[in-house]
Amino acid sequence: DNRVQKILIAPPMEARGPVTVYIATQNVGIYRSTNNGDAWTDLRKGMETFEGAFDYKALVLAPDHPGMLLYAAKYGILRSLDSGTTWQPLTLLTKPGTVDIMALAVNPKKSDEIVYATATTFYKTSDGGRSWVAKKLPTSRSASVLHVDAGDGNAIWMGTLKVKK
Q1: 93 in helix, strand or coil?
Q2: 59-86 per-position pLDDT tens digit
Q3: Which residue in 74, 103, 147, 157 has the fewest CB atoms around it within 10 Å?
Q4: Are 56 and 4 in contact (CB under 8 A)?
Q5: What is the pLDDT of residues 8-55, one digit of tens each?
Q6: What is the distance between the alpha carbons of residues 48 and 39, in angstroms, rounded to a whole number?
Q7: Are residues 122 and 148 in contact, defined by beta-carbon separation less than 8 angstroms?
Q8: CA dihedral sign, ordered 115, 134, 50, 82
Q9: What is the value of pTM for the model shown?
């Protein structure tokens, strides 16, 4: 299954410059175009060493840090500081591959503030992943989307799905 799961468009570095487009696919990896989609670069190199890295869950840009991407997969969360050319894992409270990350977001004004959620728990770091706090979700529903408010970074929106049993 190689369906496109997410399309992200990074703002141009200069006025009227080309945009950078990222697409994430389920089970195949992610790709980048720096010329408005005319050609694509495969960003899987460097991800192969992380088991489950191609089982896509979420992809987000850090607006205050051009070139920073966060990619959640079955493995966990990978971070790139160079527009996806190289990847490093974030150290999470859970071991790689042991939880399904359902949603991921970053504070648009402070890229060290990262949040993610599993079916039952919400996680937040304020220091780029060096330390995390975890809180059980106040619902029996599973997190499905997270959004950090651009105006108030302390306001985090979460959408949920009813878990079918």
Answers
A1: coil
A2: 999 988 888 999 999 999 999 999 999 9
A3: 157
A4: no
A5: 788 766 677 778 899 988 888 899 999 878 899 999 888 889 998 888
A6: 22
A7: no
A8: positive
A9: 0.88
